[in-house]
Design a protein that fits this description.
The complex is a heterodimer of chains A (388) and B (320). Chain A is of the alpha+beta class and 388 residues long. Helices cover 37% and strands 24% of the residues of chain A. In chain A, helix 12 (354-364) links the parallel strand 17 and strand 18. Chain A is elongated, with a radius of gyration of 25 Å. Chain B is globular. The chains are: A alpha+beta (388), B alpha/beta (320).
């Protein structure tokens, strides 16, 4: 789960990570009031989840309270397009107004879980304010890493190692160590999957602060963080994905093609999308129905897929292990009865209780196109979509 | 017992001869002698899958559900309150875990504290930070963990410790490693239809932090005299496939056939498995395919071609 910058900064502040003064502005007058409180010069920042806000015109300086009000009007409600939003962009509903900083240096700091070592890793770089993936690709030596043992936690010597690599000395180092420890605390306390500060800045008056905040959270751990879950902004997500989730279907991702997919297992779901591409088609979604041995969930999933007007055929690919084919079959039958338009369904069914599943579909008399294997299923689904 | 198409591959000079399949194999991780205890045996899935394991021929000797000790399950398996008690009473040497996500880390650590040599955790959805602690705790200890978020381990025709549909497996000499459960079934089904049997299939799991990595699984199968060829099924995210490729390049002479799922996945989205987010270039399907091809593996692009490609490679290597 992702949250907005201003929410990330609130979590930072709770754990002792210094951030610039400022707050969310309700309207242009409020933006003006905040700018007045902060001494006139402010940064006005669009709050959307996607990155690249600055380049898209969503982050602007205002050098007086009146200008803050004007800039607020330009940003609030705009359709902000960045390289991460897609061509439609994202509507800006929330705007953060913050004090301008006398920036000296821009650095990069992040915390995430490294699968290879199985430990949290803190990464830092002198190349702040840039696309870190690009830095990693072009100059990997510019990124410094320390692994954090979960038993002992984030130790000062790890922070010192990063500080020396970043050439942070004296009082700046002291502040940076405190900031890094706070970031680790925030990460652990909220079951985050990513805490990124880009840029982390030093100022000309000797301060060290997080100028930006990006936090992602482990979806698997949200059950124990209702306060974090409350920060979710569903307007930032695809409506069909939100609907799927509300129906208990957690692994649905909307894509742009015309062949809907209902598959059990994430790996097989990805392989099914790959197969559709190899057969010359485009998948309309990723969907792992998992081991939902629940007819209604299968029906809901198929109905959500069918409501996507781009969808011209549906490929059901089930290889039942924990998932039972007979339950999937009942779902296919139930959904076809409820669909408001006719969409050809290609079904490849194998695994646990497959005979019962096939019998149910045959007895229903519904026009389900049977496929024997993955390649066959993809070919038939692509043909069905082209014929539709 | 499921129907078993026994297919033997001829052994190469540098590999041990295929053992008599009537005897329990040397095998990897599990065989006909493995004594399994099921944690969460009285739950819906635990109970259903226990039945399937027993039908396959697996020796399920105990179940553990706190507070239900002294009972017997409908399968006739004795239930214990704790893992250590179950081990003491039944000599169980493998724990199969079906405990729900909030309690699964504790279940794994309970198996570790009872020094169970092998723990197979099926549970999907365990918080990553829980697994950070578990991984740190068990590293270097007596317990090998497979999973979590995995289909388990099966030695074809002998022992099923997991949730795979047993009937698609047939005893033979091809070892299979996969992050995804359903892709194991898919690949194995393609093999069995072609008359190519399997030795041991290891579902390592789809989470970012897993007990046994693909590299370690390759090592296990490479050292197994009953395995003549290895199929490695990876997916986008992380760099575990690259680590496996590095090991293959240095150590593996057996043929390796590989498929990477998610070539067509959009970047930055979590494709079901928490580990399957492409971040940076190392997580992409193309980077993984390249690393494996460089290591000498035969890389399959279309998932429907795994079986046919394996057959071709085995014939080329004189193994079929």
């Amino acid at each position: 789960m992702k949250i907005h910058e201003y929410q990330g900064k609130q979590i930072f502040a709770q754990h002792g990570v210094p951030i610039p003064k400022g707050r969310v502005a309700k309207d242009a007058a409020d933006a003006k009031a905040i700018a007045t409180e902060l001494g006139g010069k402010v940064v006005v920042k669009a709050q959307i989840h996607a990155g690249g806000r600055g380049k898209g015109g969503g982050v602007k300086l205002a050098n007086s309270p009146d200008e803050a009000a004007t800039v607020f009007g330009q940003i609030h409600g705009m359709q902000l397009i960045t390289h991460q939003t897609g061509p439609a962009g994202q509507k800006v509903k929330t705007v953060l107004v913050e004090e301008q900083m006398p920036i000296d240096r821009e650095l990069y700091l992040a915390l995430l879980i490294d699968g290879a070592s199985g430990m949290p890793v803190m990464m830092a770089s002198s190349a702040g304010g840039m696309d870190i993936e690009e830095v990693a690709a072009k100059t990997p030596e510019a990124i410094h890493r320390v692994s954090i043992d979960p038993v002992t936690g984030f130790q000062p010597h790890l922070a010192r190692e990063l500080c020396f690599a970043l050439d942070l000395k004296g009082d700046e180092q002291k502040q940076a160590i405190k900031l890094m420890s706070g970031l680790y605390e925030a990460f652990i306390a909220t079951d985050a999957s990513l805490a990124e500060v880009n840029p982390l800045v030093t100022t000309k008056d000797g301060r060290v602060l997080a100028l930006d905040a990006k936090m992602n959270f482990d979806d698997n751990a949200l059950f124990r963080h209702p306060d974090v879950e409350a920060l979710r902004d569903k307007d930032e997500e695809d409506p069909s994905e939100v609907e799927a989730e509300e129906k208990g279907i957690n692994n649905f991702i909307k894509l742009d093609g015309d062949i809907g997919c209902l598959v059990n297992g994430a790996g097989l779901a990805m392989a099914t999308m790959d197969s559709i591409k190899f057969a010359g088609g485009e998948p309309a979604n990723f969907l792992d129905i998992a081991t939902a041995n629940d007819v209604n969930k299968v029906i809901d999933a198929l109905l959500i897929i069918s409501r996507d007007e781009n969808v011209k055929a549906i490929l059901v690919n089930i290889f039942g292990g924990m998932a039972r084919v007979d339950i999937i079959a009942e779902g296919i039958i139930g959904a076809q009865k409820q669909m408001t338009r006719t969409i050809p369904v290609v079904a490849r069914l194998a695994g646990t209780n497959v005979e019962e599943g096939k019998r149910l579909i045959e007895e229903s008399g519904l026009p389900v196109i049977r496929a024997e294997d993955l390649g066959d299923a993809a070919t038939k689904a692509v043909a069905a979509a082209k014929a539709a | 017992m499921p129907p078993i198409a026994t297919i033997r591959l001829s052994a190469e000079a540098d590999q041990s001869p295929i053992t008599n399949l009537q005897e329990p194999k040397m095998s990897v991780l599990v065989n006909a002698n493995t004594r399994v205890l099921v944690q969460g045996i009285t739950g819906k899935e635990g109970s259903f899958q226990t039945q399937r394991c027993i039908e396959y021929g697996t020796k399920v000797v105990a179940g553990v559900t706190p507070g239900r000790g002294g009972e017997k399950t409908e399968h006739g398996v004795p239930v214990f309150n704790t893992v250590s008690q179950a081990v003491k009473e039944t000599g169980a040497d493998c724990a199969l875990i079906f405990v729900p996500p909030p309690f699964a880390a504790d279940a794994i650590l309970e198996a570790y504290d009872a020094a169970v040599p092998l723990a197979v955790c099926i549970t999907e959805g365990i918080p990553t930070l829980d697994m950070v602690k578990v991984k740190r705790a068990i590293t270097g200890g007596p317990t090998r963990l497979i999973g979590p978020n995995c289909p388990g381990v099966i030695t074809a025709g002998e022992c099923r410790v997991g949730i795979m549909p047993g009937h698609v497996f047939a005893a033979g000499s091809v070892g299979v490693i996969s992050r995804s459960g359903t892709l194991v079934y898919e690949a194995v089904d393609q093999l069995t239809r072609r008359g190519i049997g399997q030795s041991t299939c290891i579902g390592v799991g789809g989470d970012p932090i897993i007990g046994t990595t693909q590299r370690e699984a390759v090592e296990l199968l490479n050292n197994d005299p009953d395995t003549a060829a290895i199929i490695l099924i990876g997916e986008i995210g992380g760099n575990a496939e690259q680590e496996a490729a590095e090991y293959i390049k240095k150590n593996v002479k057996k043929p390796v056939i590989s498929f990477i799922a998610g070539s067509t996945a959009p970047a930055g989205r979590r494709m079901g498995h928490a580990g399957a987010i492409i971040s940076g270039n190392s997580g992409t399907a193309s980077a993984k395919k390249q690393a494996l091809a460089d290591a000498g593996a035969t890389v399959v692009d279309a998932p429907a071609e795994i079986g046919a490609t394996t057959e071709r490679v085995l014939k080329e290597r004189g193994l079929l």
